[in-house]
Design a protein that fits this description.
The protein is an alpha/beta fold. The chain has 2 domains: 21-235, P-loop containing nucleotide triphosphate hydrolases (Rossmann fold, 3-Layer(aba) Sandwich); 241-307, Alpha-Beta Plaits (2-Layer Sandwich). Helices cover 32% and strands 29% of the residues. It has helices at residues 58-65, 87-93, 109-119, 124-137, 153-165, 183-200, 211-217, 235-238, 253-262, 285-296, and strands at 21-30, 33-43, 47-51, 73-78, 81-82, 94-97, 171-175, 203-208, 220-225, 228-234, 241-249, 267-269, 275-279, 300-307, 314-317, 320-323. The strands form 4 sheets. The protein has a 6-stranded mixed beta sheet, sandwiched between helices. Strands 2-1-4-5 form a 4-stranded antiparallel beta sheet, covered by helices on one side. Strands 12-13-11-14 form a 4-stranded antiparallel beta sheet. Helix 3 (109-119) packs across helix 4 (124-137). The two termini are 42 Å apart.
Length: 325
């Protein structure tokens, strides 16, 4: 994390134009169980959200990307490198934060992160410098000498994040990084993840089933279900402006809704309250809203063009995620 520290990297550093991840027909089976099926997708650099319910194939995909698991067929490239034949080089350039707690309780954060830095190939002195910088970045500098066993869940998540960053990777794979955190801890972790990309230029692939979180930090979203690609889209495209006007008034909302409907507008209210939406298929609708509010003598709290949300792409069904097309 310290630009002044020695730059120890594997040969063949990828150019900024190379996608973070590319898969082509990626398939992995375990006996009769199909974990991934003909998965073909490209993940650009930046922050990519990998969405899927439990058992969707996310962890299997990460293991293949790291070169720790061989695909049954197809192939995957990480930063332009083949995961089947260049796994060691990939692991030198990629950081990984696992979902589950795997930290030794009887060592300090400093000891653990230094060890992981040396395992990544950094000389001892460089590993110590990078560890101090990285623990400061994730907010653990003051607690760095305490045994990890006494850490809160949020602090342990930060240790896992630190060890994934300490060797100055080009890409980090974060598996459910907000798991077990309270709302404040989630906000802080999401801020850290976004800064990894914006401040340090490190690409991120982050798995999560919480779509609202990904909408806040991801540039691109990839959805898989049962090992099959469902959708790959930029967050901007998925959250583009809808054809709906969101209206909130101080009072007499039902009267205004009735007036708009009488004029021919398509209006959906919230059960009789003062907030409702108006279909913008009728281009005169915004003027009708303002004129109607003025005639009734009610105040407009807000009137805005509503955006789509990632949660609108999906519908829950039997505990799994299905994509709305």
């Amino acid at each position: 994390m310290d630009p002044a520290a020695a730059d120890i990297r594997a040969p063949g550093v990828p150019s900024p134009e190379v996608p973070s991840v590319v898969t082509d027909g990626l398939t992995r089976t375990f006996g009769s169980v199909v974990a991934l099926s003909q998965l073909t997708v490209e993940m650009p650099q930046g922050v990519v959200g990998l969405v899927g319910a439990n058992g969707a194939g996310k962890t299997t995909m990460i293991r293949i990307l790291l070169g720790l698991l061989q695909p049954t067929s197809g192939r995957a490239r990480v930063l332009g490198m083949d995961s089947t034949t260049q796994g060691l080089t990939i692991r030198q350039l990629v950081g990984y934060m696992p979902e589950h707690d795997c930290l030794p309780p009887d060592v300090s954060a400093t000891e653990f992160v230094v060890h992981m830095a040396r395992m990544s190939g950094l000389p001892t002195e460089v590993a110590r410098e990078r560890t101090a910088d990285t623990l400061r970045h994730v907010g653990l500098y003051e607690e760095r000498y305490r045994p990890i066993g006494g850490y809160s869940t949020g602090m342990k998540q930060r240790v896992k994040l630190a060890q994934s960053l300490v060797h100055d990777p080009r890409l980090v794979l974060l598996d459910e990084p907000t798991n077990g955190l309270d709302p404040a801890g989630r906000d802080e972790m999401l801020g850290l993840i976004r800064r990894i990309s914006t401040d340090f230029g490190i690409s991120v692939v982050v798995t999560s089933h919480l779509l609202g979180e990904l909408e806040r930090i991801a540039d691109h979203v990839v959805v898989i279900e049962g090992g099959v690609l469902q959708r790959s889209t930029t967050t901007a495209d998925a959250t583009q402006l809808s054809g709906v006007l969101l209206v909130e008034v101080t009072d007499r909302g039902p009267e205004l809704v009735a007036r708009l409907r009488a004029a021919g507008a398509q209006v959906a209210d919230d059960g009789g309250g003062n907030t409702f939406t108006v279909d913008l298929a009728a281009d005169w609708a915004p003027v009708a809203v303002t004129d109607g509010a003025a005639d009734l003598g009610v105040g407009l709290v807000r009137m805005q063009h509503r955006r789509h949300h990632l949660t609108e792409i999906f519908r829950p069904e039997g505990g799994t995620i299905h994509v709305r097309h």
